[in-house]
Amino acid sequence: MIGRAAIAVWSFVVGEDWHVAVAVATSLALTALATATGLPAWVLPPVLVLAILYRSVRAGNRPAFSRAPLGDAPSRNIR
Amino acid sequence: MVEAFTIVLAVGSSRHWSSAMAGVGAGLVALAGIVGVAGPALVGIPIEVLRLIVGGLLLIFGLQWLRKAILRAAGAKALHDELAIFAEEREAAALAPAASGFDSYGFAISFKAVLLEGLEVAFIVVTFGANRGEIPLAASAAALAVALVVLAGLAARAPLARVPENAMKFAVGVLLTTFGVFWSAEGAGTSWPGGEAALAPLLLLILAASLAMVRDLRQRTQTAVGSA
Q1: pLDDT digits (tens, 9 = 90+) for B174-218
Q2: Could you tell me the residue range of the domain that residue B162 belongs to?
Q3: Quick check: ipTM above 0.90?
Q4: pTM for the complete prediction?
Q5: Is A60–B187 a contact, with Cβ atoms under 8 angstroms apart?
Q6: Out of A65, A70, A75, whose CB is closest to B228?
Q7: Which residues from chain A sit within 8 angstroms of residue B225, using beta carbons?
Q8: Coil/strand/helix, residue A20
Q9: Is B202 a domain residue?
Q10: Torsion angle of alpha carbons B138, B142, B148, B154, nearest 10°?
Q11: How many domains is chain B built from?
């Protein structure tokens, strides 16, 4: 029961691409580290987040980025 | 909530309205319980820790929304089609065994739709409300939005197919990501130049980058399809 609830919470928050969650946690750790060393760390989060988003979008549509021939049309799931 | 409305409409119109509405009521009570428990629990956490946790969660959640919205806007993922969802749900409801009294199928589908779709709303209410210490205000705004969706649906008496849901989800994804970046960075100990005034350029940056990704992905998809 608890295991199923934990899986449901995980899939609700983290979603399809778990790399995003790991990358966000890493970027926050880097930001905290940069802040602790006295650097203007506010520059880091926007840059890192956009990089994470770009990677996630690429992962979401590999055929367009790999330029491999498409077997099917883009995914047509309704939801 | 538009999708939840579509599902309830499909189930209610093809089976029993009373069971479908009971499912809606139970779903709303469950959502209110989640907000009622999670909200006060979060408010007790020190603000810096809260911003790190809530900002981080908001960022992860927002990036998932924005990713889907970018893929949809670029044509790499099917757009949300309320009429297709309505037809699919009606078909499934018609195939399910008929009930003479209380329709457990209609109840369960409506309850699940309201709870699952509403969880996203509850998450936003709890995170934004806790960060500003204004959970009742955030919950009231969400309740108003739900009421507007229901009123629009009652007026239309059909699935809300003309609501620009994909554009709205794109905008929400940009907003969630912006606030997620802002709060999580503050939680990590960073100060933004200009304080909260930094939110506007941050939002514009994320919006511009997202639109650029849509354009890039659209071109790549067309090239890939063309070369296939």
Answers
A1: 999 999 999 999 989 998 999 889 999 999 999 999 999 999 988
A2: 2-223
A3: no
A4: 0.76
A5: no
A6: A70
A7: 70, 73
A8: helix
A9: yes
A10: -150
A11: 1
